[in-house]
Design brief:
single chain, 713 residues, alpha+beta, five-stranded antiparallel β-sheet, 16 strands, 58% helix
Length: 713
């Protein structure tokens, strides 16, 4: 602000709009019932660059009027009045961009709603500040600086002004060349379109991946252990203690939280499993260690596998949505469990061959030892027994029956009746289980049933009332979406067994839902921006010129995502939606000034050149302010900074490309549309004030005295 406005006083006038809008935004957040959380604070930090936009545009125009020779009071009034329409359009465009997300439903909307509403509240308040506080401060304390180069500061400002002047003439020369002939104008648009298509090819060729959530380093991960299926809880506990002792010797480990006999994910989260345990490892702050959590977890896993043989180890980093155990997850449904397991095993083998997929597994283990009892119903009936009594007796013997209660005062305790431990140790105990038929005869289970040792699944799952099995894996070194799409391409288009179906779950399900929600919000934002422009410009054509600035930003978005190794996720897509409002304001300033100059009698060519000259400065100021506001977020290195980095880089890339391209392409497109309208005879403006006062021929009325006659008799 200091470089462009030449005065610390003017720079402070602009900066006043930031605390004025932010403090008032807290009142709005309180009325909405919002709290200070990750999303609302992200909205407040990102909106800082937007808050000064309106103030910059208003103050720059006031400063321009002061340079014409007007007093600061008159310049404040005339400058704010002249630019009021444009500033209102800029703010409305930004507001309507965020409304579709705030009003939608689903997981993504729940995550981003507070962000969007916070931005909307702060932006509307910045509009109020720019129409009230800024002109008032300018009329009282505004000052026109006359630079003479008498000190080092003024010399530096004059040098900077020389650079701006050179840049302005360079842009103007390019625009003059592009506007000279129709062929050049069309060629400019075609070349820009080719560059746009080329930028999107970065996604097609794999330079930009896709995922639901960016990987976040919270400094926490899980170490999950699984022993042999017959391991007792005492043995599992002993091993876990040894693992704990080993982990505590690591200088990066701060704290450990251990669970024995259960894991927080998979079937262990729903039932006790004596052969499983897990340790949550909390690391030191990201700045105090040389490795990321993902790398640290991988090294710990490798070291534990070397130290403890015969134990299966897994590690899972903990992100903002919890433990990232299986971001890649596919549910295989089938008519029966055996078919589901068979098909899931087949596609599991395909998943293991995909680069970047690690720890691929099924959600159910098929090697669980169990005693299988196959009853011969005919023999059972001939011995006078029925299935209900047999099942109830077996359950009481080996699992227990708690129908009986013991009361001690006001307390009540279950009485669990079952066989003692000595009678529940081997398969022979099951075979020799005795039943009494109605005749009082003793019958062994082995007399009417085949009892044998076998193995079965550890968990039976269902999806939409059908037996199902999940195939899941982690992604390392590649975005989740890229790994999942490459895996799905291997079997999705093949002929699948009858009754088998594949359903995405986990991150891919969230990604499809989230991208769908944000895609609809993106289209709704474009439509709303167009409708706002139609109402402001009283034209269905010129708003298309403003909308043409949006694809120009996408060029910079794709390039910077590839250069910074960021992926397409819900936050980078939010940045793209945010860009619709931010880049449209540049086009609005150019189109609005061009229309004003044409109304004053200038030709389209001259009006476009004048608009380029007059609006280049505020466009530069607002764009640079927004970029500098995003840089701290883009360059942040603290814990959880990865979530916001992609959004900030998207805004920086989009603003940078639109800054240069909007100043050239938007005037060229405006010129093409204007030529088309002129040839169609649609360029004549209707004088609504004159039409309101125009004479008219009074029609004869019906007998009722107020209805006009529709037929002449």
């Amino acid at each position: 602000m200091l470089l462009f406005l030449h005065s610390i006083r003017n720079a402070f006038i602009v900066m006043v709009s930031i605390p004025a809008s932010l403090v008032a935004a807290f009142i709005g957040m309180n009325l909405m019932g919002y709290t200070l959380n990750l999303m609302s604070l992200l909205g407040l930090s990102l909106v800082v660059g937007i808050l000064v936009d309106d103030a910059i545009v208003v103050l720059e125009n006031i400063y321009r009027h002061m340079e014409m020779g007007k007093s600061k009071i008159r310049a404040a009034y005339d400058g704010a009045s002249e630019i009021g329409f444009t500033v209102a359009a800029i703010t409305l465009v930004i507001v309507v961009v965020f409304l579709p997300i705030a009003m939608s439903s689903g997981l993504v909307a729940n995550i981003l709603a507070q962000f969007c509403v916070t931005v909307v509240i702060a932006t509307l308040l910045s509009l109020l500040a720019s129409f009230t506080i800024i002109p008032w401060l300018s009329s009282r304390f505004g000052k026109l600086e006359h630079l003479t180069g008498k000190n080092w500061f003024e010399k530096f400002i004059l040098w900077f002004e020389g650079l701006i002047d050179k840049f302005t003439h360079w842009i103007t020369d390019i625009l003059e060349w592009c506007l000279k002939t129709t062929l050049r104008r069309i060629s400019t648009v075609v070349i820009t379109f080719i560059v746009l298509i080329s930028s999107f090819s970065l996604v097609i060729f794999g330079f930009i991946g896709g995922e639901f959530f960016p990987p976040i380093d919270r400094g926490q991960f899980l170490v999950q252990m699984e022993l042999s299926k017959d391991a007792t809880v005492e043995k599992t506990n002993q091993l876990t203690l040894e693992v704990e002792k080993y982990l505590r010797n690591d200088k990066d480990v701060v704290d450990l939280i251990t669970t024995v006999g259960q894991q927080s994910t998979g079937f262990g989260g729903a039932q006790a499993t004596t052969y499983q345990s897990e340790v949550q490892v909390n690391l030191t702050d990201k700045s105090e260690r040389s490795e990321s959590t993902n790398i640290k977890a991988a090294k710990v896993k490798r070291a534990l596998e070397e130290k403890f043989t015969g134990v299966e180890f897994k590690t899972a980093p903990i992100g903002i949505m919890g433990a990232e155990n299986a971001p890649i997850e596919m549910v295989v449904t089938a008519p029966d469990n055996a078919t589901a397991v068979k098909e899931a095993t087949r596609i599991l083998d395909l998943l293991k061959k995909v680069p970047g997929a690690v720890d691929a597994e099924l959600s159910t283990d098929s090697g669980n030892p169990e005693v299988q009892v196959n009853i011969d119903r005919d023999k059972m009936a001939s011995l006078g027994l029925n299935l209900s009594s047999v099942g109830q007796t077996m359950q009481t013997a080996f699992n227990g029956n708690t129908d009986g209660k013991f009361r001690a005062g006001e307390y009540e305790y279950d009485i669990n009746i079952r066989f003692g431990d000595l009678n529940r140790q081997s398969i022979d105990d099951v075979k020799n289980l005795m039943f009494t038929n109605p005749q009082g005869q003793q019958v062994r289970l082995s007399q009417f049933a085949e009892v044998k040792m076998g193995s079965g699944p550890s968990l039976l799952e269902r999806r939409d009332k059908s037996p199902s099995v999940k195939v899941r894996a982690k992604a390392v070194g590649r975005p989740v979406g890229d790994v999942a799409n490459e895996w799905a391409a291997k079997f999705m288009n093949e002929k699948k067994p009858i009754g088998v179906d594949y359903i995405w779950s986990g991150d891919m399900e969230n990604q499809q839902e989230g991208f769908g929600t944000l895609g609809i919000a993106l289209l709704a934002a474009i439509v709303l921006v167009y409708l706002v422009m139609v109402s402001l410009y009283d034209s269905f054509v010129y708003p298309f010129v403003v909308l043409f600035s949006i694809p120009l930003a996408m060029i910079g978005v794709m390039v910077i995502l590839a250069l910074t190794a960021n992926s397409l996720n819900i936050f980078t897509m939010l940045g793209m939606i945010m860009l619709i409002g931010l880049v449209a304001k540049n086009a609005i300033m150019i189109v609005d000034f061009t229309n004003a100059r044409k109304a004053a009698g200038a030709t389209t060519h001259d009006a476009l050149i004048q608009a380029n000259h007059a609006r280049l400065r505020p466009i530069l100021m607002t764009t640079i302010a927004m970029i500098f506001g995003m840089l701290p977020i883009a360059l942040a290195t603290g814990a959880g900074a990865e979530m916001n980095k992609g959004l900030a880089w998207v805004v920086i890339g989009g603003l940078t490309s639109s800054l240069f391209l909007t100043l050239i392409i938007v005037p060229v497109v405006y010129s093409l549309f204007d030529s088309i309208l002129r040839r169609m005879g649609k360029d004549t403006k209707v004088d609504y004030e004159a039409e309101m006062k125009a004479d008219y021929v009074h029609r004869e009325l019906n007998e009722d005295g107020f209805t006009p006659k529709h037929l002449d008799k």
